[in-house]
Amino acid sequence: MSVTEETVLPELRNAWWEHGYRRRAETGVFGVFAELPQFVRQAVAVAWRADKVRTSLVGLATVAAGAMATFGLLSTQRVLVELFGAGPTPERVEAALPALAVLAAVTAVRGGLGIATGYAQNGLTPRVNQEAERRLFETTTAVRLDAFDADAFADDMERATRGSDAANGLVSDTTNLLAGAVGLIAVAVAVVVINPLLLLALLVATLPNGYAALRAGHLRYANFLAGSVRRRRLFVLQRQMAERESAPELRTYGLRRFLLGQYDMVMDAQTATELTLARRVTTTMSVGAVISGIGLGGVWVLLGVLLAGGHIPLSAAVTCVVAVQAAQRSLTTVTMQLDHMFTDGQFFKEYVGFLERARQYIPDDEPDGQPAPPPLRRLDITGVSLRYPDRDSPAVDDVTISIEAGQTVAFVGENGSGKSTLAAMIAALRSPSEGAIEWNGRPLPEWDRDGLRGRIAVVLQEHHKWPYTAATNIAMGDLDTDVEQARIETAARKAAAHETILSLPHGYRTLLDRTFKEGHDLSGGQWQRITAARGFYRDADLLIMDEPSSALDPRAEDALFQAIRGRHGRHTTILITHRLANVIHADQIFVLHEGELVERGSHADLMAAGGRYAELFRIQAAGYRSE
Fold first, then answer.
1. What is the DSSP letter of 511?
2. Residue 311: domain span
3. Mind telling me which residue stretches traverse the membrane in this protein (predicted)?
4. Which of 25, 102, 132, 247 has the fewest CB atoms within 10 Å, i.e. the most exposed one?
């Protein structure tokens, strides 16, 4: 497979982290200047929100340091004037002492301002990072669940995750760009004071190098863009050859030689491209250096003519040499920061745009005085439908059911029948497109949102493995209450997880993540027990369990369902499962097919009806019969 053919692979689509580089490559050399004012405003705004004092200190110190550069050059000229003047050496030195004192003071002040700027920037960086990350996470944790169904939202969020780095980069780039620009202005002012003609010479000596640097930056970004597919393929290969998840199959199927061959093929092409880039960049920079060198030679010729004609003293000529060197350093800083600022600015624009676009997914504020829901007496689902944005047919289509408090009910059906989607709407995780769900006769949106969720516990089939201790993983079922070890252990016993946890190196204090020191791995079934314990810990009015035993061994599964049956008559439980033997004792069984409710009743009723439920049950039961 060639590198070109690999572009069709899904893992090689445009990567979110290349967006800023892509824009820089497409913009060209001078296009970077168009968006600079906007980026400067954004950088100042985010830094100001993070820390007003440090932002002010950085700005004032940077400008003041530039002013000191002007005074430094003029003081240098004055020292040279006195030293190159007529008269005995002691008298010339004595005459130069005031200017030397000013130069020393200016140098000391610049040094102090540099220290102050560094101190302020070091303190500003973590605050900017916290400000940007906090705003992002405030948004991602507040949006409705349906936001994650939209591909555009997921892509937006992926790019926005670089927002905190981009914010820090943008603030730092702006500061450095300001320092370079102020340095250039300071040199220009000093040169104009000495002789206005020298300013033109200064531009000729420095601008070609600056243009060459911008052009070289454009070549690098264009090369980065052209190598996008190769770089992503290398990223995929590096993961395949060095990660734990792929290691067993790599060895089982003898993939080592194949993967190394893929690496060599892609890396050879990448190396050839980088060598070509190196030649082009070297040529560009060399041409710029030659032109600037010619311009610099012109500066020396101009200085010689001015000296020979008596238009400027030798001291001014020497000062001009110092100014040219200072200007070249400042211009190097400016050109480098222009590229950095443009790319960081693009990433920050994505971050800001995501925050704005995400507002449409954030639930409206609840009206004041929303009542807290009382204990559940009855749950009514009336004409409920829900349609996902990427599907033509509804996931749930006009479902109507009623559940009495204390009942154990089951949602059954084949994969994709709408069971989990219906449960998500009952749990107030999703809002129905049509119809209504009522808690004690009142629609769910009319109850206090947090109070309602406090009365519902959900054990998800696709559960998240939280990287905390076993105890914390269970207590996360109800963090709003005081965490009690006895309550944690009771919940673990109900889920057949207690003995498993005690066998861990540190019992309930064992960290369940191998990424960290002394962390520990769990099997799929062990994690499922932890997740079920999390649901039991809340002891909620309504417990929804989605495939709670799919990875459990028979003994653990039996213990789990005994605990579920223990809730009967006290609390309400909704079971979603393909193991129909576990729902025989349910008060009601609701059978869904392609989003529609096709059967309802007890196990005996449904078996007598001989419909879809009876067919599925007999298929499973046949597997347990001996010949």
1. B
2. 30-361
3. 56-74, 177-205, 287-310
4. 247
